[in-house]
Amino acid sequence: MSVKELVCIACPMACRLTVSHDAGGEIRVTGNRCPRGEAYGREEILAPRRIVTAVVPTESLAFPCAPVRTEAAIPRETIKDLLARLYATRVSLPVHVGQVLFSDFQGTRVVFTRTLPPDDIPPVGETGAEAEGKNQVS
Questions:
Q1: 101, HSE (Cβ side, Cα atoms, 13 Å)
Q2: Residue ranges of the chain with pLDDT lower than 50?
Q3: C-alpha to C-alpha distance for 123 and 133, rounded to whole angstroms
Q4: pLDDT value of residue 24
Q5: Alpha-carbon distance 23 to 111, whole Å?
Q6: 8 Å CB contact between 40 and 10
Q7: Hey, which residues does 65 pair with through a beta bridge?
Q8: What distances in angstroms separate CA 90 from CA 17, 57, 104, 122, one per listed residue?
Q9: Whole-angstrom Cα distance, residue 46 to residue 111?
Q10: Which residues on adjacent β-strands are paired with residue 75?
Q11: Rounded-to-integer distance, Cα 113 and Cα 73, Å
Q12: Is 119 helix (H, G, I), strand (E, B) or coil?
């Protein structure tokens, strides 16, 4: 029999779970205060999954990376593959929150979590060519 101690992340209560798994395949979860804790404990032993957040490189000097995340949890063992694919991808701006980067990775989509403007818009505090001559005080 194997026993694993976990902190449940299924809800804000953060229950301390004890998950025991015997040779016959029976899994017992204790310490949970809600049904989601039991489901989380079982999943964590049988097939752990995670929502992944990361950044992808852009072609912009003003915004060198754009944040993304998976819409649903993916198997933990596939996270390295996803990160390698994300870091090998370069995106052009603009991008919009919710815009799909990859439509199907392990049964979920990878989407942008922030809207970034086109590359020709100067960052805050800098002036672009179109801004020169405007709002000047003589």
A1: 33
A2: 138
A3: 18
A4: 86
A5: 40
A6: yes
A7: 57
A8: 41, 5, 18, 20
A9: 27
A10: 49
A11: 16
A12: coil
- CA angle centred on 120, ends 115 and 68, rounded to 5°: 25
* Cα 54–chain centre separation: 6
State pLDDT tens for residues 107-136. Answer: 999 999 999 999 776 656 666 555 555 555
Domains and CATH numbers, the chain: 2-46 (no CATH), 53-112 (3.10.530.10)
Residues facing 105 on adjacent strands: 108
Bridge partners (DSSP) listed for residue 18: 5, 30
54, burial (CB in 10 Å: exposed 0-12, middle 13-18, buried 19+)? middle
Chain centroid to CA 77: how far? 15
What pLDDT shows up at residue 138?
Answer: 46
Which of the 8 DSSP states describes residue 91? Answer: B
CA distances from 60 to 34, 66, 101, 114, 119 (A): 46, 10, 17, 15, 6
Q: Which two tokens stand for residue 6?
A: 């976990």
Rounded (5°) CA angle 75-115-117: 135
Tokens of 3: 């026993």
Q: Which amino acid is at 37?
A: G
